[in-house]
């Protein structure tokens, strides 16, 4: 793949060694340009008119189809949300669950997944069970109604054994915040019922964008937790709550045109580089970084063929700040002794060698 | 007030007679420029770094304070939502309500309020009672736990008798979609517990912006319906669900910087024109339009000192389309025989005279 071409689309890379797409990815030139076109359209045209609404609906439809292709599903199985957490809340809050029923999760989950689970426990008396990330499937019991866990652990970068989860027969919600856009995703092969993804991380989309895959068999059991005008098939009889077709009933309204255009153009930039090549290169670079860090005596945690590399530091907050000052945009993982580098296909071996040297030098 | 100066900030007014801020308001030049500055900052700087996060938090804080001043409350009583419907869902979904308890509403409500109520009935067995808009307070019964209705009816433009509602002692949620930015709002004087406002309508902000006022005494009884990272005071222990201080716990994440900057700059444009003068002029123009329409024999419905003027048409959809083709951006109200003009201070008497003539000529 043409790394120089990809890097030239991402000007933030000139300022820092960008290793935090696990939080928010770099913004592409083409995406910002596309957003600006839509801002100007909103300025000049009447936003309150039917033409603008039609344009917004059209862009939303294109985005849904584009993301469905990335996920390996049909467009009507995709909801346009505002974040991975939105999708997780839509599932955990949308299912009829109560006392005596168990949601099974893991010990490597993000607050954006755990907070919705905590709410289900507090408000609805659902029981939570927490298993080690590698042993989730074997912790399924007769009262387990949902498995909710990461596709790729934000802590260790490990990839969940989705086949083992699917074989339990319990519906599976995967938190794909470190999945979609970072590694190849095929929701049918994963066998999950729900896959919640971020737009602003590995897909380099705007903050406030995300996606939720809902498998056909799982849609009818999911009530929208925050229904509005666009959830309805017939806004003329809202008290009957007639829901729109497909996962679109779970959309967070129609995305603003500048947000949708940004999302689409950012995916174009990644697709132009070649998605398979992008995934392969990012995983290879991450693997190389992990080996270099380990070779210099650092303790690298977990790992798998993902884009995340975490290692132990005596004072992870201080170490992240020190690396940041040296030009490396890494992050500390709160509540853990870990510093994490989120490696993108846009990184270079030179950048990662320098990180390994710098991280080593004072640990 | 300087109408020409205000109009020059709103280029969409050159294309159409803009009478649909009740759906989406015109976008101001300064707001689009402010959004572009933030898009470029996101392009050039590292969005994944602490500096960007700090910038986003700072803009969110400024926006919260600015909107609190508009509402007449304290900043910590304001949540940054994505739409008025978001705020309504946060209240209706966030309260502990169940069978045997009643939510009282009116016969002039928007699907964005009715859909959340329908969900409360369907999922939690809450009873709904619907009273005529002018008689809500007298329909309160011993099992009424919440009054949820419009501040200004989107159908008739009538303003609710908030004092009568407050005197019932039942918590009141006002849907302020046609209130904040259109007429003077003072949540303390209104005596409501919750006020849900839109950002994209009368405040001319971006689609995907909204605000929720929650009175101090009402905050603790409200659980976030979709908690995430930013709902928590301590993201290090999400399973305990320690909630952030104030209404910010109900924020829909931290707004993207370009959205917050747009919102702030749009409020600046309105404030530069003078908010009191803006409200006075819009109400006066709307009153004049209603009189002209009535004088030509049309049936104007409801009315009050608001910015909405609705009238009956034999075929309202066709009439709205015909007026649209003639350059008037009005809307038909689905499920009613009404066409509605949402009059802004940016309109001129000439525009409204022409509308009255045109609407009359073929009805």
List the helices and strands and how they pair.
2 copies of one chain form a homodimer.
Chain A (H helix, E strand, L loop, with lengths): L2 H6 L8 E2 L10 H16 L5 H22 L6 E4 L2 H11 L7 E5 L4 H14 L2 E5 L12 E7 L11 H6 L4 E4 L11 H4 L3 E5 L11 E5 L1 H4 L37 H17 L1 H21 L4 E2 L6 E5 L3 H10 L2 E2 L1 E2 L5 E5 L6 H13 L2
Parallel strand pairs in A: 1-11, 3-4, 3-5, 5-6, 6-7
Antiparallel strand pairs in A: 2-8, 7-8, 9-10, 10-13, 12-13
Please describe what this structure looks like.
2 copies of one chain form a homodimer. Chain A is of the alpha/beta class and 363 residues long. Chain A is 40% helix and 15% strand. Chain A is built from 12 helices and 13 strands. Chain A has a 7-stranded mixed β-sheet with strand order 2-8-7-6-5-3-4, sandwiched between helices. In chain A, a hairpin with a 5-residue loop joins strand 12 (331-332) and strand 13 (338-342). Chain A starts with a helix and ends with a helix. The model of chain A has no long low-confidence stretch (mean pLDDT 96). Chains A and B meet through helix 2, helix 3, helix 4, helix 5 and helix 9 of A and helix 2, helix 3, helix 4, helix 5 and helix 9 of B.
């Amino acid at each position: 793949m043409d790394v120089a071409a990809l890097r030239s689309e991402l000007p933030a890379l000139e300022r820092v060694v960008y290793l935090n797409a696990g939080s928010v990815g770099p913004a592409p030139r083409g995406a910002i340009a596309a957003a600006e076109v839509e801002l100007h359209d909103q300025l000049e045209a009447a936003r309150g008119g039917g033409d603008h609404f039609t344009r917004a609906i059209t862009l939303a439809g294109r985005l849904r189809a584009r993301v469905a292709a990335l996920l390996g599903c049909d467009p009507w199985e995709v909801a346009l949300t505002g974040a991975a957490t939105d999708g997780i809340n839509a599932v955990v809050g949308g299912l009829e669950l109560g006392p005596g029923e168990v949601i099974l999760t893991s010990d490597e989950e993000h607050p954006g997944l755990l907070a919705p689970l905590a709410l289900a426990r507090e408000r609805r008396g659902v029981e939570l069970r927490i298993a080690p990330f590698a042993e989730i499937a074997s912790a399924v019991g007769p009262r387990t109604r949902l498995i909710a866990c990461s596709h790729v652990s934000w802590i260790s970068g490990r990839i969940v054994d989705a086949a083992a989860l699917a074989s339990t027969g319990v519906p599976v919600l995967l938190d794909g915040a470190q999945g979609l856009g970072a590694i190849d995703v095929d929701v049918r092969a994963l066998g999950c019922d729900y896959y919640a993804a971020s737009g602003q991380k590995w897909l380099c989309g705007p903050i406030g964008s995300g996606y939720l895959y809902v498998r056909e068999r799982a849609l009818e059991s999911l009530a929208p937790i925050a229904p509005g005008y666009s959830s309805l098939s017939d806004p003329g009889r809202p008290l009957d709550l007639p829901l729109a077709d497909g996962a679109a009933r779970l959309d967070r309204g129609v995305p603003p045109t500048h947000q949708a255009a940004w999302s689409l153009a950012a995916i174009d930039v990644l697709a132009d580089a070649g998605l398979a090549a992008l995934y392969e290169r990012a995983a290879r670079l991450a693997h190389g970084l992990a080996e270099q860090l380990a070779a210099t005596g650092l303790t690298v945690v977990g790992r798998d063929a993902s884009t995340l590399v975490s290692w132990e530091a005596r004072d992870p907050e201080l170490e992240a700040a020190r690396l940041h000052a040296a030009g490396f945009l890494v992050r500390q993982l709160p509540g853990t002794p870990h510093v994490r580098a989120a490696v993108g296909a846009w990184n270079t071996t030179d950048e990662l060698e320098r990180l390994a040297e710098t991280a080593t030098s004072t640990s």
